[in-house]
Design a protein that fits this description.
The protein is an alpha+beta fold and 138 residues long. Helices cover 30% and strands 17% of the residues. It has a four-stranded antiparallel beta sheet with strand order 1-2-3-4, with helices on one face. Strands 5-6 form a two-stranded antiparallel sheet. A hairpin with a 2-residue loop joins strand 5 and strand 6. Helix 1 packs antiparallel against helix 2.
């Protein structure tokens, strides 16, 4: 038995690419498809505007930039501003206020380990210490 002839198969045709989105959800008012991104590649500026709440953002763009890139830059810029504002609140607050601010955002806190072997949630020194702790008869 042999293989089927190639001429009997139907041609599949070119794969269709899904176009990238140009409208997005607003970070401030949470409306779907309310943020519109526009690119002006000749000037090198990308603009983002919300139709509902009026938020706007501008960034530099390159020749390969897409509206998704402008939206991602906007998200990054909003995160940076939020981190700076949180840092400013912690610096301005007294010791009791700083403690309440730290405990109010537990998802952003790093895990605190009693062991000195951990640094930024990674094991730094893994040699020898644990076997001695669990040895029977001590």
């Amino acid at each position: 038995m042999g293989k089927r002839k190639k001429s009997s198969r139907a041609p599949t045709g070119p794969k269709k690419k899904e176009p990238l989105a140009t409208t997005f959800q607003c970070l401030f008012c949470n409306h779907e498809n309310s943020v519109i991104c526009k690119l002006d590649k000749k000037v090198g500026i990308g603009q983002l505007n919300c139709k509902v709440c009026g938020q706007s953002f501008q960034t530099n763009v390159g020749s390969l930039s897409a509206p998704v890139d402008i939206y991602a830059d906007w998200i990054d810029a909003c995160d940076d501003v939020a981190k700076e504002a949180e840092k400013g609140q912690l610096d301005d607050a007294g010791p009791s206020q700083a403690q309440t601010l730290r405990t109010s955002a537990p998802s952003q806190q790093k895990a605190v380990h009693k062991d000195d072997r951990y640094e930024n949630d990674f094991v730094v020194d893994d040699e020898g210490g644990m076997e001695e702790d669990y040895a029977p008869g001590r």
